[in-house]
User: What shape does this take?
Amino acid sequence: MTATATSPHVLMPGAYPEWDMAPMQAAYTLHRLWEAPDRQAFIAAHGPGIRAIATRGDLGADAELIAALPKLELIACYGVGTDGIDLAACRARGIRVSNTPDVLNGDVADLAVGLTLALQRRIPAGDAFVRSGAWAHGGMPLTTRVFGQRIGIAGFGRIGGTIARRFSGFDAEVGYFSRTPKPDSPHRHFGSLVALADWCDVLIVVLPGGDATRGIVDAQVLQALGPKGWLVNVSRGSTIDEGALLQALESRSIAGAALDVFLNEPHIDARFAALDNVVLTPHHGSGTEQTRRAMGELVRRNLAAHFAGQPLITPVA
Ligand code: 8YV
Assistant: This one.
């Protein structure tokens, strides 16, 4: 199929993998915002005809962009997190929003477990130890046992629940922080993030981004986690007070942190790279081929459903 003069005009703030770009190019008249030398001029020229935005979890769609598109009907998000999308502006104009939940739960949960293992068993440091030849001069320092710990999960939605299931294989005791207890969960509920941090050995953050959770992991939470406590973040950088975290890591008032998300990605605070008690990954929770293919297909199914006048596959409330 090849896009025609009547194909819906779709704005893309950033690229999708090629296996998605080809069918998108065939079905729609694509406007590739990230390639525009002058973003404002590009939006002024093409904005009046744009009917949908196909964005990503890390790029979103702010109020200014939405306001510049008078015919906008749909924002389809490649990702589950919609904190970068001005949902209030969408609701005010009746603009539909879709995302890609569930298909990425397993990958993000796997990375949370993998980061916990990498952090506490110091797997990156072990790799460097062998490669450097240091092993010839003695053994690597001892690390920290992972199994049998208290795992605290901040945010107990579909990804948090998947993480809890993963750690049931590690003989772990699981506690969780959420606004309300999950009645069907066997795990201990904490209504206070400070109380969960005080209780657990490893605090794993899977809260949604946005104003309601901005900086929620603050100096008080980190103090409660304590010098033998560990932090893992696979949610959004905005959930953590990064100044407080860097202070805690540099002073070793927490044992260490494994971070997949940061403020100001990809230009993160240089202080992280100077630390030896962190493991850092580049916002890659959903970063497997299988999951990204599933996410792209879901975005395209939502676009097709919308333009066919049908209900969205995965609407955002
Ligand atoms: C996105 C994410 O896949 O799902 C989200 O909200 O943050 C990621 O998993 C990524 O931003 C896509 O580029």
